[in-house]
Amino acid sequence: MATVELRFSALPEHVRTARLVAAAVARRSGVDEAVLDEVRLAVGEACTRAVGLHQSGGITAPVKVSLIEEEKQFSIEVGDEAPRIAPGDRAPGSGDIDVDAEEDEMGLAVISGLVDDMEVTAGEHGGLIRMTWPTTPPATALG
Amino acid sequence: MDLSLSTRTVGDRTVVEVGGEIDVYTAPKLREQLVELVNDGNFHLVVDMEGVDFLDSTGLGVLVGGLKRVRAHEGSLRLVCNQERILKIFRITGLTKVFPIHTSVDEAVAATD
């Protein structure tokens, strides 16, 4: 079970709350202070994307965020319920600045630029972005 | 923390001072401000990001949109930013190649290229 679980109505004003909660739990779990900004940004991007998918799809279900403390790592899962066939993990656009078409991809581009360990899955029941960060002690070399 | 916006004119440039958090909730306000400025004939914008605590891809999208609008009028949109955590987002997304980023408002206002 997740350490902390959060469900919020798919509205832009709640994304900030999700960021704050995620950063607080990440800090408690031992994620390095220097990385907390990245955690905050990445979870915000994932939630923003989920909110956008719910709103454009007319989905009334809440967006779900799971904050999971594990041994030597901390994971965040952001789940949406927007059904789709194609997985949303296309490569970020390069050079082109068509805002509307690229907004979704830009969010993913930011996440993949920030988080080494991330996984995007999507299916007929919705999508999930899972992001994982190591927790202390940082000196321990992991294979 | 909400978004704060204030504008002032320096020569032929319009400086937009932004403070607080630019995210999916607040970005529309920034978009409105930029659209309004361009509609009012201000085509050379300097967006001062020194007071920004948080910026996400929605905010980037608004800035890119602003850039497209001023470019349609042969204008310019320059950014002022010294904060590493904000600059990092521009680097990750490759937007450092799209926006001229300056270390001070004075520098941005004086820039011509």
The fold-level CATH name of chain A is Heat Shock Protein 90
* Structural classification of chain B: alpha/beta
Beta-strand percent range of chain B: 25-35%
Q: Say how many strands of chain B there are.
A: 5
Number of helices of chain A: 3
Could you give the distance between the termini of chain A? 26 Å
Total strands of chain A: the figure is: 5
Enumerate the strands of the largest sheet of chain B in spatial order, edge to edge or round the barrel. Answer: 1-2-3-4-5
The CATH superfamily of chain A is Histidine kinase-like ATPase, C-terminal domain
The quaternary state of the protein chains shown equals heterodimer
* Mean pLDDT over the full residue set of chain A: 86
CATH superfamily of chain B: STAS domain
Number of helices of chain B: 4
* Unreliable runs of chain A: 87-91, 93-101
CATH architecture of chain B: 2-Layer Sandwich
Rg measurement of chain B, Å: 13 Å
CATH topology of chain B: Transcription Regulator spoIIAA
- Major beta-sheet overview of chain B: 5 strands, mixed
Mean pLDDT of chain B: 96
Keywords (chain A): ATP-binding, Kinase, Nucleotide-binding, Serine/threonine-protein kinase, Transferase
Protein name (chain A): ATP-binding protein
GO molecular function, one term (chain A): ATP binding
InterPro entries (chain A): Anti-sigma-factor_SerPK, HATPase_C_sf, HATPase_dom
